[in-house]
């Protein structure tokens, strides 16, 4: 039997190379967020039939995963309702909710932070984006930080916002829930919400961290399409940056 060299699927942690690769049910269940259910077979079923059943089950699981999430996002796909936040504190000493922006035709959500050098490299591009859309009043940009290290604390966010003269809300979510709801992985990572507050675009702003080397902008065309009542030609792009510092649940040691 010939075995193929496994390849790694982007942002899933799974490996595969077509029918020659078998992924354990525990790995699949962990990735899908569901409890693994051991497969049972009637007495007399041959090993070959069991293998066929396993492959069919794997194919069905992978098809379901495609329907559940986007190309690069583990939680959302294009067209999904945007998760709403409410009463998140901002650097302006006010609390903010997605519902506050009901008069906007498009909302850009960017998960960012103080501590990531790539995220801070994008700050001037965020400021420029807001400046270019200020006259229309149709677009809002909201930045959200969920990291819990000291450099990313709300007091230090206030210092950063003041130093850079941010003209957009910069919010903090200590629970990290809103980032998890959006399936955000990196800082910065962008989401464009349409008038009906459904996901129209998600991923990176452009194709290079260095603005001098960036040749393709994904965010601007996506917003323009939403404002025109159309779907973006590019609805997903790979985000780049620092990994969001999610809290890790420690496993209890068994006696």
Provide structural commentary:
The structure is a single chain. The protein has 255 residues and is an alpha+beta fold. Helices cover 28% and strands 15% of the residues. The chain has 7 helices and 11 strands. The chain has helices at residues 25-32, 47-68, 117-121, 123-133, 154-164, 177-182, 219-227, and strands at 7-8, 15-16, 88-89, 95-96, 106-111, 139-145, 170-172, 186-187, 189-193, 199-203, 242-243. The termini are far apart.
Helix segment count? 7
Secondary structure class reads alpha+beta
Q: Name the strands of the widest sheet in spatial order.
A: 7-6-5-9-10
Radius of gyration: 21 Å
The end-to-end distance, rounded to whole angstroms, is 43 Å
Q: Helix and strand succession?
A: EEHHEEEHHEHEHEEEHE
Strand content: 5-15%
Task: Please give the share of residues in helix.
Answer: 25-40%
Number of strands: 11
Average predicted local confidence, pLDDT: 82
Instruction: Give the low-confidence spans.
Output: 1-39, 60-67
**Largest sheet report:** 5 strands, mixed
Shape by Cα distribution: globular
């Amino acid at each position: 039997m010939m075995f193929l060299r496994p390849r790694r699927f982007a942002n899933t942690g799974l490996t595969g190379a077509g029918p020659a690769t078998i992924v354990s049910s525990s790995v699949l269940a962990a990735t899908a967020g569901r409890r693994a259910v051991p497969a049972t077979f009637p007495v007399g079923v041959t090993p070959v039939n069991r293998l066929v059943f396993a492959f069919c089950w794997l194919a069905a699981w992978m098809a379901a995963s495609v329907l559940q999430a986007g190309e690069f996002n583990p939680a959302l796909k294009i067209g999904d309702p945007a998760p709403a936040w409410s009463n998140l504190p901002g650097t302006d000493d006010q609390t903010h909710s997605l519902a506050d922006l009901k008069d906007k035709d498009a909302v850009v959500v960017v998960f960012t932070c103080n501590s990531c050098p790539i995220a801070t490299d994008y700050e001037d591009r965020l400021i420029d984006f807001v400046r270019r859309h200020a006259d229309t009043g149709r677009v809002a940009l909201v930045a959200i930080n969920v990291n819990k290290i000291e450099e990313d604390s709300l007091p230090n966010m206030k210092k950063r916002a003041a130093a850079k003269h941010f003209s957009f809300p910069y919010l903090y979510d200590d629970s990290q829930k809103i980032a998890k709801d959006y399936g955000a992985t990196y800082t910065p990572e962008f989401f464009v919400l349409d008038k009906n507050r459904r996901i129209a675009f998600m991923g990176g702003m452009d194709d290079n961290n260095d603005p001098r080397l960036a040749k393709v902008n994904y965010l601007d065309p996506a917003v323009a399409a939403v404002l025109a009542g159309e779907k973006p030609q590019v609805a997903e792009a790979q985000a780049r940056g620092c990994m969001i510092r999610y809290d890790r649940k420690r496993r209890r040691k068994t006696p």
